[in-house]
Amino acid sequence: MQNWISKLHLFIKAIKPYSSRKGVTKISGIDIVNADLFVEDKKIGKVKGVIIDPQKWGLTHLEVELTKEAAAEILGANTAVRNRLAVSALQKGKACCTEKGVVIKVSLKQLPVYLRPA
């Protein structure tokens, strides 16, 4: 168990953001957690965690908490909802994580396809 945790810590540490003339080249899980979540320039929630496939050591999902309004619009829920968001819904490269937050590339209507209960 300790070995897996150590590898996870090293993985997250290895993707810490570094500025360069070309912009952000690496992103840290710590920098993503609690970041605002946007789709179509509309804030829909916050990132609450990252989900990593331990077999492939790759990021697969973000655990997100949708606002009450976004949950109602997207899922028809009456309260704020935690879900897993597939990373395939995100902008690639530095476009995904801006100073304002994490940007989703798919439309609001397409978003339920990329969400799963947490």
Overall, the morphology is: globular
Q: What is the count of distinct domains?
A: 1
CATH architecture: Roll
Order of helices and strands: HHEEEHEEE
How is the quaternary structure best described? Answer: single chain
How many beta-strand runs?
A: 6
Count, helices: 3
Strand content: 25-35%
The Rg value, from CA coordinates, equals 15 Å
Reported by name, the CATH topology is SH3 type barrels
Describe this structure in words.
The chain is an alpha+beta fold and 118 residues long. It has one domain: PRC-barrel domain (SH3 type barrels, Roll), CATH 2.30.30. A 6-stranded mixed sheet has the order 5-1-2-3-4-6. The longest helix has 13 residues. It is globular, with a radius of gyration of 15 Å. About 8% of the residues have low confidence.
Observed structural traits:
single chain, 118 residues, alpha+beta, SH3 type barrels, six-stranded mixed sheet, 3 helices, 6 strands
